[in-house]
Amino acid sequence: MTRWLGTGPIRIGRDEWVLMRDDERIPAAIVRLIDRGGPHEHYRVVSFDVDPAKRRLLGRYTSLEAADRSVLYRPPAVYRKGVYGGPPNGR
Question: Domain spans of the chain?
Answer without folding.
Answer: 10-70
